[in-house]
Specification:
Helices cover 32% and strands 21% of the residues. By secondary structure, the chain is of the alpha/beta class. It folds into three domains: 157 residues, Adenylosuccinate Synthetase, subunit A, domain 1 (Adenylosuccinate Synthetase, Chain A, domain 1), CATH 3.40.440.10; 90 residues, Adenylosuccinate Synthetase, subunit A, domain 2 (Orthogonal Bundle), CATH 1.10.300.10; 155 residues, Alpha-Beta Complex (Adenylosuccinate Synthetase, Chain A, domain 3). It has a ten-stranded mixed beta sheet, with helices on both faces. Helix 2 runs parallel beside helix 6, helix 3 crosses helix 4 and helix 5 crosses helix 6. Its cofactor is Mg(2+).
Length: 419
């Protein structure tokens, strides 16, 4: 497979980082194409834990290189922090990282705006406060700074002063960072990036390079957090789906496949509808066993049973061709597990929501399956067969622990179980 996208099939935190890291050794380029430091992708390298917020989940001592595409909103200070952590263990790693000149920058005032807006909302979204919404808003309303602006100090100063003039009016002087502060901040981060030897690149020029080799696209968040198709307004502001690869100049027709990462149960951080959410002891037990705390904010994740109508919706919306199932080991030892097969939406039975609006009204209808002692148990095979039958998507890989190597093909697992 030369060009594959790996996306989250639920509300994020499915284990995309781990899965991308597992496959990264087979690809020359690992490309992040959307979102920003709201993402938190956990990987283990030589047994040590790293959390990537902006960096693609490459294996630092492997041969792949990382690309940050134009659909992202990048907090350069955060990127530098992540690079410094990796540099300490893998000197020279930064020279394997390339950033598209067209990427949009998250500036200190975007984080202030995120805080302010959340505090003023009647119903807060529960954002990560990483400035994502305000940055994408500025991008669309054409009030922002792209990476290439930092190479032209005169123009940068002018642009920042124009933007600040407007922001100061809109927020009635509540924004503390001034255009001068942001200018100084950008000069400093540019110096730091130069010291680290990060590459700045044009996706236009890279087009031929990408097409001549293997590329793995690393999605951020999950389909149900997508700006267009997720549970609006409780969504993020970027494209969380495979379509997002267009921001690196690719069409989805150029993808060999789209892999959906699927957690064996469901989690969500922040506000918004969640039909299979558990409020009982079982939910607490799954959250504890799964260590369900946000990798970016540390907030407890809401937990619920697996939701097949939501998965069918994700499959159609993002054109998922196969699944990788993660974290089924968390449910090891449960006598039984529930799985939502249909929704009751105001008296109408639906196997798939018609629009994201249905998620607000859906009452889950469950089927109960036997639990498994370990993922090497035939009952786990039955659980996977059930998911495959109800979604029409094959599960081809199984992740059974946080470490990169804790992963196998389903065929291997079947051989192990059936002997
Ligand atoms: P991402 O945002 O989709 O990359 O996922 P996160 O890193 O935010 O959250 C997934 C969490 O589950 C991380 O702590 C991973 O180390 C962990 N994890 C990933 N796959 C597995 C798995 O198969 N089993 C277990 N027990 N943990 C896993
Ligand atoms: P990864 O890539 C889980 C959620 C936030 C909030 C909503 C909007 O690690 O799966 P934002 O800061 O983006 O404006 O917040 O989206 N959210 C995530 N939830 N995993 C993520 O990323 C998320 N990125 C954003 O909690 O509900
Ligand atoms: Mg995460």
């Amino acid at each position: 497979m030369k060009r594959v996208a790996i996306v989250g099939s639920q509300w994020g935190d499915e284990g995309k980082g781990k899965v991308v890291n597992y496959f990264s050794k087979n690809y020359e380029w690992i490309v992040r194409y959307s979102g920003g430091a709201n993402a938190g992708h956990t990987i283990y390298i030589d047994g040590k834990k790293y959390v990537n917020h902006l960096l693609p989940s490459i294996t630092p001592n492997g041969y792949s290189k990382g690309f940050l595409g134009a659909g992202m909103v990048i907090d350069l200070e955060q990127l530098i922090n992540e690079l410094k952590i990796l540099e300490a263990d893998f000197p020279g790693i930064s020279s394997k990282i390339y950033i598209d000149y067209e990427t949009f920058l998250v500036l200190p005032w975007h984080k202030e705006e995120d805080e302010l807006r959340e505090s003023m909302r009647k119903k807060p979204i529960g954002t990560t406060k990483k400035g994502i919404g305000p940055a994408y808003t500025d991008k669309v309303s054409r009030e922002g700074i792209k990476l290439y602006n930092i190479f032209d100090e005169k123009l940068l100063k002018e642009r920042l002063s124009e933007i600040y003039y407007l922001k100061n009016k809109i927020y009635s002087g509540k924004i503390k960072s001034t255009d001068k502060d942001v200018f100084e901040y950008l000069l400093k981060v540019k110096r730091d990036l130069d010291k680290l030897n990060v590459n700045f690149a044009s996706a236009v020029k890279m087009g031929d390079v990408f097409r001549s080799t293997s590329v793995l696209f690393e999605g951020a968040q999950g389909v149900l957090l997508d700006l267009d198709f997720g549970t609006y307004p409780f969504v993020t502001s970027g494209s969380t789906m495979a379509h997002g690869v267009s921001s690196v100049g690719f069409s989805t027709f150029e993808l060999d496949k789209v892999m959906g990462v699927l957690k064996a149960y469901t989690t969500r951080v922040g506000s918004g509808p969640f039909p299979t959410e558990l409020f009982d002891e079982t939910g607490g037990k799954i959250a504890k066993l799964g260590n369900e705390f946000g990798a970016t904010t540390g907030r407890p994740r809401r937990v619920g049973w697996l939701d097949l109508p939501a998965l069918r919706y994700a499959k159609i919306r993002s054109g998922l061709n196969e699944f990788v199932i993660t974290k089924a080991d968390v449910l090891d030892g449960f006598d039984e597990v529930k799985i939502c097969i249909k929704y009751d939406v105001e008296g109408k039975i639906k196997e798939i929501p018609d629009s994201s609006y249905d998620f607000y009204k859906a009452k889950p209808i469950y089927e109960t399956l036997k639990g498994w002692k370990s993922t090497n148990d035939v009952n786990f095979l039955k659980y996977m067969a059930f998911i495959e039958e109800f979604t029409g998507v094959k599960i081809n890989y199984i992740s059974y622990g946080p470490k990169t190597e804790e992963m196998c093909t389903k065929n291997n697992m079947i051989m192990r179980i059936k002997g």
